[in-house]
Amino acid sequence: MADIITAEGLVKRYKSRSGEVRALDGLDLTVPEGSVLGLLGPNGAGKTTVVRILTTLLEPDEGSAHVAGIDVRADPKGVRARIGLSGQYAAVDEYLTGFENLDMIGRLYKLGRTTSRARARELLERFELDEAADRPVKGYSGGMRRRLDLAGALVAEPRVLFLDEPTTGLDPRSRTGMWEVIRELVRGGTTLLLTTQYLEEADRLADDIVVIDKGRAIAHGTADELKLQVGGERVELVLLDPADLESARAVLAKVAVGEVVVEQDRRALSAPVSGGAADLRTVLTGLARASVEVTDVGLRRPTLDDVFLNLTGHAAQTDSSKDTEDAA
User: What is the enclosing helix (H) or strand (E) of 117?
Assistant: First the structure.
């Protein structure tokens, strides 16, 4: 499968009051055609800067990038003709109707009056906005505006789509709906580069994930491959009576492949295991025989939250006010 997006050694510098800031510091990326790459990192990691460079909105200070085989520096117009972009904030005109917004985009792409209008109606129906098509966008909810913005990115049927934190600010229901829309696009063959700070979003949508921090790629792989870096499964349990901690520790020790961790203040214990559900059954049987009661017990896999914390030493989501890249 050919790579439709490639970037080598991307560097972008900004000047700040404290001196020079490197939003990107030698970043490499490859995205095979028809796949989804999740660019994962906190605010300020460099995600938006990458998208701006690949969509020709910003020139890198160093390095090169190609989208659909076209050099983003040498032929930005050619790149723009083949891509769609939905940014962090819905780029819609709130004084126009939903239909007028999409029709206008079609005209800007020189699709012609008839094609633009037909494409607008098609996308409004596809994104379940047909009932609101002739209402001014200023009356739309946040989720509706995000869907309209994504529809706008698809008017010209681009080969490559860039989504920069597409579900930021949405409520859980709207976010889930947007995920389903994105899945549908991917099933239709669209190549997607998705930036997000939501670990669950990357886990659900991306075929491949690049974790970036401070402008550098610090990990690359599928969600499962990245989770393996943290370790395998763990049996975790919370006791009803803290007096049973030692008895429960002895039961866990029989299946543990590493240290049994005890948190006395939470009456909790956990241990890495290699036998999965079989080990969990062994623990439950052992606890019953020892008359140890629990309020919670389970077999836990590492999450992408665990991966990010392990790789960077800090959580994935940070205060957006500290986002250097967005301020630049």
Answer: helix 113-126
